[in-house]
């Protein structure tokens, strides 16, 4: 039996009873990083007095080798108690594990996914946005042009979007977000659940400016709020979507869409580029 086990994203006490039970019984550990998982087990043993299987097998299964590792799998391994654990948070969500879950579904291998720590859900709950629906994007493309293109597509959505970003790219992310969506608000969280957790609330412009003065070390979770007032009506939404897909020249199309939506032509121009 295979269990996908979420692990704490910063605070060790966020481990669940069920997750601890599966870790204690596991004879085979599939790990994003075997060193991180071994350290987690040591910390759990020290903090909670947990004891684990005497001689478990640790198998490296990360984003660079996931497919090749799966191709070598012998399904009889799952006759033993097995877990998959990413370094922090929920497996398969912007973390390895999704290909393994798909393989199990395809090959009729029984498995379970346990609930637990997740940065996206935690950030949304703490953001105060409160509309009850959102989209999770994860990490935007690394290259600037691809990132701007993705943000242009996202700009048309009318509900909050949740992103992850690394400390190495958060400044570029914030600058592009400000350029493409200058009139939107964000709630940005650094090092969620950890000792030095920080948050920022404000406009995308202010966020881009503030990043320059911040210690950006640590993983980021950003909740992008929807437009404050969407002036589109049900009657013209279909027209807007149709115009966008026509591929008309960007400058005149931007002016037309600005008249329909009440937004500035420059904002539409950036989205359509």
Give a written overview of the molecule:
With 273 residues, this protein is of the alpha/beta class. 41% of the residues lie in helices and 16% in strands. A five-stranded parallel sheet has the order 3-2-4-1-5, with helices on one face. A five-stranded mixed sheet has the order 6-7-10-8-9, with helices on both faces. The mean pLDDT is 91.
Layout of secondary structure:
Elements: E1 2-4, H1 17-25, E2 28-31, H2 34-48, E3 57-60, H3 66-71, E4 82-85, H4 98-107, E5 111-113, H5 119-127, E6 135-139, H6 144-154, E7 161-165, H7 170-180, E8 185-190, E9 198-203, H8 204-211, E10 220-224, H9 234-246, H10 250-261, H11 265-272
Parallel strand pairs: 1-4, 1-5, 2-3, 2-4, 6-7
Antiparallel strand pairs: 7-10, 8-9, 8-10
Helix pairs in contact: 6-7, 7-8, 10-11
Gross geometry: elongated
N- and C-termini, Cα separation: 49 Å
Q: List the secondary-structure elements in sequence, H or E.
A: EHEHEHEHEHEHEHEEHEHHH
Low-confidence residue ranges: none
Strand content: 15-25%
- What about the largest sheet? 5 strands, parallel
Mean pLDDT rating: 91
Radius of gyration: 22 Å
Could you estimate the helical fraction of the residues in percent?
40-55%
SS summary, helix count: 11
Strand order of the largest sheet: 3-2-4-1-5
What descriptive keywords fit this protein?
273 residues, alpha/beta, five-stranded mixed β-sheet
């Amino acid at each position: 039996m295979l269990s996908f086990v979420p692990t704490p994203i910063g605070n060790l006490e966020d481990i669940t009873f069920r997750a601890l039970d599966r870790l204690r019984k596991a004879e085979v550990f599939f790990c994003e990083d075997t060193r991180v998982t071994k350290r987690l087990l040591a910390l759990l043993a020290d903090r909670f007095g947990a004891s684990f299987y005497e001689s478990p097998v640790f198998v490296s299964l990360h984003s660079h080798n996931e497919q090749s590792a799966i191709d070598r799998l012998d399904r009889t391994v799952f006759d033993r108690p097995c877990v998959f654990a990413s370094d922090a948070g929920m497996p398969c969500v912007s973390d390895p594990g999704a290909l393994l879950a798909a393989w199990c579904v395809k090959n009729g291998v029984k498995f379970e996914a346990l609930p637990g720590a997740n940065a996206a859900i935690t950030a949304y709950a703490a953001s105060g946005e409160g509309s009850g629906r959102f989209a999770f994007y994860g990490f935007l493309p690394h290259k600037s042009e691809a990132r701007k293109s993705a943000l242009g597509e996202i700009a048309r959505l009318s509900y909050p979007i949740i992103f992850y970003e690394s400390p190495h790219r958060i400044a570029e992310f914030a600058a592009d977000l400000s350029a493409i969506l200058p009139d939107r608000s964000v709630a940005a969280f650094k090092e969620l659940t950890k000792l030095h957790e920080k948050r920022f609330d404000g406009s995308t412009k202010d966020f881009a400016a503030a990043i320059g003065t911040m210690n950006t070390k640590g993983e980021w979770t950003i909740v992008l709020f929807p437009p404050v007032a969407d002036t589109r009506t049900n009657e013209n939404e279909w027209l807007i979507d149709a115009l966008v897909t026509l591929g008309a020249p960007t400058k005149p199309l931007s002016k037309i869409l600005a008249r329909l939506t009440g937004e500035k032509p420059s904002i539409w121009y950036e989205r359509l580029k």
